[in-house]
């Protein structure tokens, strides 16, 4: 039959034969498997290929409290270990408001734009995921969060410092196996967590501020002693002079400290994380340090000392956890604790009784 719309003059209006409706569900789309449904070998393979989704899944297993997740995580870590270790691990600390996130964003962008892969991890034992204001939170590092060569992971959820730190330490191994050559580990400069961070990094960077009167504000001497570099942030606008004065105060304070074990003299410099000035100089300092510490053997010595520390930390954690999960200990604990509290037995006696239950004596 003749259809006028199929005439040559109406070519553009030609009615084509219809095609069958495409199925609404893509038959090739498999159900998204849960993290635990991947085998350790699949996760490891994904990580070694630099697959970020697989890396995230493995990190989720590392952070999980469930024993079956922990078992898979342990195997993945073991398989990744031979591929780990080839990165610069940098600890970053500073009081809240010092500008850690702003600085990590700027330092991180500088690094990734030069072809490096950067992972940003965090240790904050007080953090609770639901509360939002977590170290390592992507929203605080807007530019970096969008960069394909950056992997940002918030602090593992609240828990014992030892537990949180162990998880971050294991995550470093996974990130390195996935090809990340630069690792930042961020922490708030107000508690014990710096010691934990210091125990897993090659360089410890302390971010300070000028212009708040006492220049050594809120930072304990111990943290200053751990620092390999002190950088005074917000050296911009009216604050430049004050920042320089603070820097010279830090330099003279540091000169009173005993020389560091590495032989490296901690560098003090000023910069602006927000306006991105002095960022190249901070990376220069880090490169200088790496050359220095690799050259005199300190880099390797520090890493092997850290490995020893983590071995004993893990033993301690495992013993503590199996002690408190022991059925006889768990059953007797409240009563024995009560007796110790009302002084009917001594604390040492209480501990001995629980240990005997644990050891089955
Ligand atoms: P954090 O709590 O240590 O992570 O600090 P933030 O990075 O969130 O920064 C705290 C505040 O200081 C924010 O309002 C930033 O915009 C501001 N800030 C950070 N870096 C600079 C800087 O270099 N110069 C100025 N003027 N402000 C900055």
Summary?
Strand 5, helix 8 and strand 6 form a beta-alpha-beta unit. With 361 residues, this protein is an alpha/beta fold.
Descriptive report:
- With about 350 residues, this protein is α/β, with parallel strands linked by helices.
- It folds into three domains: about 35-80, Up-down Bundle (Single alpha-helices involved in coiled-coils or other helix-helix interfaces), CATH 1.20.5.170; about 85-295, Rossmann fold (3-Layer(aba) Sandwich), CATH 3.40.50.300; about 310-360, no CATH class.
- It has helices spanning about 40-50, 50-65, 65-80, 100-110, 140-145, 160-175, 195-200, 220-225, 240-255, 280-295, 300-325, 325-340, 345-360; strands at about 90-95, 120-125, 150, 180-190, 205-210, 230-235, 265-270.
- Helix 1 crosses helix 3 and helix 12 runs antiparallel to helix 13.
- The radius of gyration is 27 Å and the shape is globular.
- Guanosine-5'-diphosphate binds near residues 233 and 274.
